[in-house]
Amino acid sequence: MKATITSLELKSPFHFFALSKEAMHIVKQLRSTKCKEFKKRGIWTKHYTMTLWNSEEELKEFAASGAHKEAMAKSGKIAKEIRTITIDAESLPSWSKAKELLKEGKVYRF
After folding, report:
1. Residue 82, Cα to own-chain centre: how many angstroms?
2. Which end of the chain is more exposed for a tag (fewer CB within 10 A), N or C?
3. What 8-state DSSP symbol labels residue 13?
4. Which pLDDT belongs to residue 39?
5. What is the pLDDT along the chain (110 residues), one digit of tens a residue?
6. Adjacency order of strands within the sheet including 79-88
7. What is the pTM for the complete model shown?
């Protein structure tokens, strides 16, 4: 199985409303997939998600379609930085472990 961990740092706290709107659509899309588990957490300008998938193909299909694809196209308007990493895992890691893993993840700065 594959776990994807993502952090998003907003340009300002005022972008939280735009993030929430996009997240609502993404979660709706996520519920229609074969995602095994989903966790999110965030406060102020720093937000995190974790998803667990049966395969990398399922993960990639989700990431490149629908609300997720649309949100990624807009992400540079609200995010200062996005970090992401995909790992082999049978379950989602703890939040502290996830934050450590993100230090080695791919970084997008806007």
Report:
1. 9
2. C
3. G
4. 98
5. 999 999 999 999 999 999 999 999 999 999 999 999 999 999 999 999 999 999 999 999 999 999 999 999 999 999 999 999 999 999 999 999 999 999 999 999 99
6. 37-43, 46-53, 2-10, 79-88, 106-109
7. 0.93
Contact 67, 28 (CB under 8 A): yes
User: What is the distance between the alpha carbons of residues 2 and 52, in angstroms, rounded to a whole number?
Assistant: 6
Record the tokens describing residue 83, joined without a space: 């970090």
Q: How many domains is the chain built from? A: 1
pLDDT recorded at residue 30: 96
Strands 46-53 and 37-43: antiparallel
Q: Which two tokens stand for residue 2?
A: 């594959």
Give me Rg for the CA atoms of the chain. 13
- Would you state the structure tokens that stand for residue 66, as one six-digit string? 């629908």
Question: Which tokens in the block code for residue 41?
Answer: 């957490």
- Residue 92 three-state SS: coil
**Domain containing residue 64:** 2-109
